Amino acid sequence: MGDDNQGPTLRIFASPGRYVQGRGALARLGELVADHGSRPLVLADDVVRGLTEQVVTDSFREAGLPLVFERFGGVPTRAEAARVAAVIGDGGHDVVIGLGGGTAIDTAKAAGDDSGVPWVSAATVASTDAPTSALSVVYTESGAFESYRFYDRNPALVVVDTQLVAEAPTRFLAAGVGDALATWIEARAVRDAHSHNMVGGLPTRSGTTLARLSWDILWESALPALEAVDRNLVTPAVEAVVEANTLLSGLGFESGGLAAAHAVHDGLTAVDQTHHLAHGEKVNIGSLTQLLMEGAPTSEVDAFAEFTARVGLPTTLTEAGLGDADDATLDRVVAAATAPEETIHNLPFAFTPRDVRDALRAVEGVGRRARARAGLGEPSAPDHG
After folding, report:
1. What is the top-level taxon of the source organism (predicted)?
2. Does residue 279 have an active-site annotation?
3. Among the four residues 11, 38, 159, 385, which has the most C-beta atoms within 10 Å?
4. Separation of alpha carbons 136 and 151, rounded Å
5. Is residue 294 assigned to a domain?
6. Active-site residue among 265, 302, 358, 383?
């Protein structure tokens, strides 16, 4: 994955220029951005703008920066990135800020790259590990995965306001836990296969170790953090999980590498039945699929399924909208997940498309048993109205 010009023997680690996290961090956005430009453009959807406009306005005024918002269209497509890049050029902006979740942040990266200006990630949720990385996930207009887009630099700055994270729906933080738990599952597979990470080199020990640290923090702190966020509270557990979801998982996936969990996520986006799921929710189905493909010990698979069910993540195909899917539907998922450019090929063993489909089907039984052990009852299929 990424740029292989450096050759296969080099180990590469990538990171953003600066990472700032804490309650009220957004109030410092202006002074932090001022180090990178004097005419910023802030990309945000209407909901995020409504929640943050006052604090961002005050922050930019104190820093002596002009404030220009641009409305994010909602889907990180190539066309949306090109549109925002045109706004940057027409307005003479010299830095772009993605404000909100992973889709706005990924679009700001793409637009910044197209325009030749630095980009800043200002996260109001901790639902993905997108903010720190030098890549974007590009989707089609219908919401299906299209490709990864790689850049030669990471965000100049990442700002995460944990009070905003705590005030967002708890499901967002839970989805981030699903995204981040996959990081270690995938990084250890990439390490064992001597495969490339997302920046075109072999993983560094630090990248793989940060992936494991994210995992350890989440097993310790995810459940109390989610309980706190249910009440809009910022506790040490919340701070720890936000760091694990955003910084540690971001560094871990980019420099440690991806494998089957995210490839299965990409495959799931190819069918309409799963579009109700957040990124990290689909990734959790992918993590279970990878563990089953690996033949991981039953105790490990069952513990992971039960823990993520308690977190509130889907652990069955039923919850993903695929409980009654026929082989043809799952074959569409598998075909997308095993496309030649996909990260599933970083696994340290050979497999067939049938192996992937069988593992994906086996998730249902594993997830149902886990829900029963956790006292969560039968899984519910989504109501598509």
Report:
1. Bacteria
2. yes
3. 159
4. 8
5. yes
6. 265
Q: Do 209 and 353 share a domain, yes or no?
A: yes
* The two three-digit tokens of residue 289, written as one number: 């699929």
Q: Let me know whether 136 and 112 are in one domain.
A: yes
**Does 384 qualify as catalytic in the annotation?**
no
What pLDDT score was predicted for residue 3?
45
Residue 122 vs residues 16, 158, 197, 384: alpha-carbon distances, Å: 12, 6, 25, 32
Q: Which position among 106, 161, 179, 266 bears the catalytic label?
A: 179
Known catalytic residue: 179? yes
Residue 235 sits in a domain of what CATH number? 1.20.1090.10
Q: Which two tokens stand for residue 227?
A: 């309980």
Tokens 């109030």 correspond to what residue?
27
- Residue type, position 349, single letter: F
* CATH number for 32: 3.40.50.1970
Which residue among the candidates 161, 196, 262, 266 is catalytic per the annotation? 262
Is-catalytic flag, 265? Answer: yes
The residue annotated as part of the active site, out of 279, 302, 324, 384, is 279
Which range of residues forms the domain containing residue 159? Answer: 19-166
- The SS3 of residue 149 is strand
pLDDT digits (tens, 9 = 90+) for 222-272: 999 999 999 999 999 999 999 999 999 999 999 999 999 999 999 999 999
Q: Are residues 90 and 191 in the same domain?
A: no
